[in-house]
């Protein structure tokens, strides 16, 4: 297999740090990935930012969530006030935060510190008709890309994507099943915490929705039919961030479903994506496996909002720091392995 000279330089740089070969585990892989994304042996993470896309879902009126749909609006108000988990973790870890109204049912005040990109006040109920029109989908893909272009212009080179949308695990599960070919039951979970009875009903409703609207295996058509405005904007944002050469952090189950759609449209997006954590939501582990992903953290989270990204970011920072700052055996005068021994292993 062809290995570039940067790849070789990086392997050597990591292997000759003062540690047993491979002893920094996943940190070594992260440092390598980020350096390859930035095409340099001395990567820098600048202006790290979390973007939370919010949208309402027509399917939420079918009782597929443990919480009422108005929580989407209320939680965005909470993000604006600075009181949500994502606000806390961004502050703790020195991350910027942008919140996007991709399609919340109610309107925010015009001067609220959010990005106004509402496709419509919530998607249509995909138990009866496709979630969105072609025009709405195109708008969302463009808006997501625009958010990223503006971040990049402001010198950010690492971005984490999260979401807020009551009912959106339903969209994510259907997208996962259609685009991976895995059985629906393996892709549906309890979301915000459904009871056994409501969980069984959610699975029936989603199976019925697929009977009504069809087995769409084209990623764009699947997204239009079963997606959400926040998921569609994440897809546009992920593709734009790949094109802009940014390091992309993905949050939980719903964000990973957006990454799956983006991957099916443009497989090279995976080159720039780091999956921040493995969520508790049933289906996430399977989806990560499908994508060949090795998540940074496993904290039993199932919150969303980009919280996994904000928590994983310090690990990325440490990976880059060891690559840039740690001494080599030669620099520190420590006895290491010869190049031959290293390559043999
Ligand atoms: O990120 C995850 O893995 C995750 C797992 C379960 C639920 N959520 C969050 O909960 C909401 C969706 O859950 P539900 O039950 O309303 O479909 C949405 O706002 C997500 O951010 C998020
Ligand atoms: C309170 C609450 C906060 C959330 N944050 C993301 N999804 C959420 C769902 C609920 C219900």
Automatic annotation (TrEMBL):
What's any GO biological process attached to this entry? cobalamin biosynthetic process
- Active-site positions on this chain: 305
* This protein's UniProt keywords: Cobalamin biosynthesis, Glycosyltransferase, Transferase
The protein's GO terms of the molecular function aspect are:
nicotinate-nucleotide-dimethylbenzimidazole phosphoribosyltransferase activity
PANTHER family named in the record: NICOTINATE-NUCLEOTIDE--DIMETHYLBENZIMIDAZOLE PHOSPHORIBOSYLTRANSFERASE (PTHR43463)
Which protein family is named in the record?
Belongs to the CobT family.
The protein here is known as: Nicotinate-nucleotide--dimethylbenzimidazole phosphoribosyltransferase
Q: What is the species of this protein?
A: Siphonobacter aquaeclarae
């Amino acid at each position: 297999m062809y290995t570039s000279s940067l790849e070789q330089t990086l392997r050597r740089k990591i292997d000759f740090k003062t540690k047993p070969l491979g002893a920094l585990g996943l940190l070594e892989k992260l440092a390598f990935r980020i350096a390859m994304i930035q095409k340099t042996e001395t990567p820098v993470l600048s202006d790290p930012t979390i973007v939370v896309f919010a949208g309402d879902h027509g399917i939420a009126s079918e009782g597929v969530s443990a919480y009422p749909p108005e929580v989407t609006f209320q939680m965005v108000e909470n993000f604006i006030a600075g009181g949500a988990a994502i606000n806390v973790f961004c502050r703790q870890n020195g991350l910027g935060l942008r919140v996007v109204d991709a399609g919340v049912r109610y309107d925010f005040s015009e001067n609220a510190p959010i990005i106004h990109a509402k496709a419509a006040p919530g998607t249509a109920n995909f138990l009866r008709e496709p979630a969105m029109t072609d025009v709405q989908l195109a708008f969302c893909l463009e808006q997501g890309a625009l958010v990223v272009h503006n971040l990049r212009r402001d010198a950010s080179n690492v971005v984490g994507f999260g979401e807020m949308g009551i009912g959106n695990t339903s969209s994510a599960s259907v997208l996962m099943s259609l685009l991976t070919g895995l059985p629906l039951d393996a892709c549906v979970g309890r979301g915000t915490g459904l009871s056994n009875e409501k969980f069984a009903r959610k699975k029936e409703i989603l199976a019925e929705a697929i009977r009504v609207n069809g087995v769409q295996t084209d990623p764009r058509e699947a997204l239009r039919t079963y997606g959400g405005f926040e998921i569609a904007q994440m897809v546009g944002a992920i593709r734009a961030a790949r094109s802009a050469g940014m390091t992309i952090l993905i949050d939980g189950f719903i964000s990973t479903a957006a990454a799956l759609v983006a991957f099916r449209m443009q497989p090279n997006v995976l080159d720039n994506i780091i999956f921040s954590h493995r969520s508790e939501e049933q289906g996430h582990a399977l989806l990560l496996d499908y994508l060949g992903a090795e998540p940074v953290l496993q904290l039993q989270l199932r919150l969303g909002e980009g919280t996994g990204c904000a928590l994983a970011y310090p690990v990325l920072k440490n990976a880059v720091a060891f690559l840039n700052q740690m001494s080599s055996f030669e620099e520190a005068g420590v006895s290491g392995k010869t190049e031959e021994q290293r390559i043999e292993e």
